[in-house]
Write a structure and sequence with these properties.
By secondary structure, the chain is α/β, with parallel strands linked by helices. It contains eleven helices and eight strands. The chain has an eight-stranded parallel barrel, surrounded by seven helices. The two termini are 15 Å apart. It binds pyridoxine-5'-phosphate. Pyridoxine-5'-phosphate binds next to strand 8 and helix 10. Pyridoxine-5'-phosphate (PXP) binds at residues 10, 12, 46, 73, 93, 95, 134, 154, 196-199, 217-221.
């Protein structure tokens, strides 16, 4: 098995385009199957409480059609827990949807909601789902994710990518240093480390180079790039950059 980080392709924004008109096209499941064929190691989809992109039916169809693992992103609500328990996807990634669930850096505030989240993830783990928590590069959040029994943390790379896009390079480098340090720290606790949000061809390499990172989840940029290149070449270029960074 290669030591390269896995690439999870997030297909939410194919559904965003579909929903802009209603109807059935473009179909996110078709995109997921194409991504799988192009060599994606997994597919990520976020069923939001407001169903603004992915729908319940999309999740059903993805579960039926995919041969690679589905990483099901969801808020920590009873409704979403019931849906996850019904489908039992390979992985469940808990993400914040409301302002009050978030830390200032944008990840889930696990530390604030530790007791409830510990009870929330127990049945998901019992059902065999790998539970991942989307958090900022913050030691207190990592400690809390570890205490509640998560197996995986996904580090939020949004602040790093925003700083790069806005030309705030000192901030970008500080974010990257924090991500690197917290990636090492989480790994030392026995957590599997994933990363994602906002990654592009320009920003992926330094994160892919962290030796502890096992998976990168990338969506918006790839779906945008697919307009110009097609989804398959866009994925291949991202994989090339990821593998190059790790060599
Ligand atoms: N990882 C998580 C946990 C996310 O919530 C998202 C966005 O849905 C992504 C990765 C992918 O982010 P982007 O679409 O910006 O690449």
């Amino acid at each position: 098995m290669s030591d390269f980080p896995r690439l999870g392709v997030n297909i939410d924004h194919v559904a965003t385009v579909r929903n802009a008109r209603g109807g059935a096209v473009p179909d996110p499941v078709r995109a997921a199957l194409l991504a799988e064929e192009a060599g994606a190691d997994g597919i990520t989809a976020h069923l939001r409480e407001d169903r603004r992109h992915i729908s319940d039916e999309d999740i059903e169809r993805l579960m039926a059609a995919l041969t690679v693992p589905l990483n099901f992103e969801m808020a920590a609500t009873d409704e979403m827990q019931a849906i996850a328990l019904k489908h039992q996807p390979h992985a469940v990634c808990l993400v914040p949807e409301k302002r009050e669930e978030r830390t200032t850096e944008g990840g889930l505030d696990v530390a604030r909601d530790e007791n409830r989240l510990a009870h929330f993830i127990a049945p998901l783990r019992d059902a065999g789902c790998r539970v991942s928590i989307f958090i900022a590069a913050d030691r207190a959040q990592i400690d809390a994710a570890n205490r509640i029994g998560a197996e995986v943390i996904e580090l939020h790379t949004g602040a790093y990518c925003d700083a790069h896009a806005e030309g705030r390079f000192a901030d970008r480098d500080a974010e990257l240093t924090a991500l690197a340090g917290m990636s090492t720290y989480a790994h030392s606790l026995g957590l599997e480390v994933h990363a994602g949000h906002g990654l592009t061809y320009e920003t992926v390499a330094p994160v892919a180079a962290f030796p502890e990172v096992k998976e990168l989840n990338i969506g918006h940029f790839l779906i945008g790039e697919a307009i110009f290149l097609g989804l398959t070449p866009a994925i291949h270029e991202m994989q090339r950059l990821i593998q190059e960074a790790r060599k």
